[in-house]
From TrEMBL:
Primary location class: cytoplasm
Gene encoding the protein: tilS
Residues reported in the UniProt entry to bind ATP: 23-28
Keyword terms, alphabetized: ATP-binding, Cytoplasm, Ligase, Nucleotide-binding, tRNA processing
Known role: Ligates lysine onto the cytidine present at position 34 of the AUA codon-specific tRNA(Ile) that contains the anticodon CAU, in an ATP-dependent manner. Cytidine is converted to lysidine, thus changing the amino acid specificity of the tRNA from methionine to isoleucine.
The protein's name in its UniProt record: tRNA(Ile)-lysidine synthase
Coiled coil: none
Location of this chain's protein in the cell: Cytoplasm
Family membership noted in the UniProt record: Belongs to the tRNA(Ile)-lysidine synthase family.
Amino acid sequence: MTQSFDAAMAAFAPPLPLAVAFSGGADSTALLLACARRWPGQVHAIHVHHGLQSAADGFVAQCEALCARLQVPLAVCRVDARHAAGQSPEDAARQSRYAALADAALQAWPQRPMACIALAQHADDQVETLLLALSRGAGVAGLAAMPARWQRLGLTWLRPLLQVEGAALRDWLVAQQQDWIEDPSNTDQRYTRNRIRAQLLPQLQAAFPQFRDTFARSSRHCAQAAELLQEVAQADLAAVGSPPAIAALQALSSARQANLLRHWLRSVHSTTPAAAQLEELLRQVAACTTRGHQIRIKLGCGFVVRTGALLGWYNP
Ligand SMILES: Nc1ncnc2c1ncn2[C@@H]1O[C@H](COP(=O)(O)OP(=O)(O)OP(=O)(O)O)[C@@H](O)[C@H]1O
């Protein structure tokens, strides 16, 4: 259920010391301010300078000013967030941001490495993430949206505000007379996420006022389903072998074959096949009933080939 900002903060019990990922935007300003008041001397802030827009230097100055006022130590890290071919600019920025946040949390204060990092995504961000996943045709792992807690890069990551509406966060900041940075790129309608926020969320609010709660429930169902699929894939891969034996693969249902192959390609070969490529591979596996049947299919960044009784992989 959605919560007030105060209720979410009251329920938040992170390991300390805590680093807040602080962009200077409304959400992380509210999180930083509330954490600094609640755990004085135990809260640090990390700001990532993406170098993507000319306004970024001004963002740093504003973050420094608020942290000085709150007496919160601030680490500013500069990252090169240019995206590689085939990668979305938002994804590239997110990945380099997470790596920089982890480095800073563990190394910026060597006498006192941080135990965890808190991020300020809220209930509207969660809905946007789900709708973005739907717009890409994602499977259950994508529809699971953002977890509230996970371990990665040697740290605990937390999202304590996932049940708070964006407007409630801003109302709280206004009541504290605390201003924040309005990042101009957040209203750029070239980004799908911004179109979802500006055009879809108001319509959803009018048509289904409970959409934040019900969508979040669907995401939790998907998170559970994704966990089960992962467990089944691991067990099936252990039984079928890595690389997979074709005859053993054929004995599974086609849904389990698809689940296993996706898992094998992702976990062993770091590649994600397009839906049509995976369908073609399943068709070829089913048709592979004679000694002479060849398989060679482009999948993600490489090829799946038949090598005797096994499926092989190579990346030219
Ligand atoms: N440049 C940054 N430096 C540090 N943390 C960041 C930065 N950008 C985003 N984050 C963290 O990731 C979360 C989600 O990022 P997102 O891009 O949705 O936020 P934002 O709109 O830039 O800022 P905010 O969420 O603070 O309003 C932020 O709430 C914040 O905790």
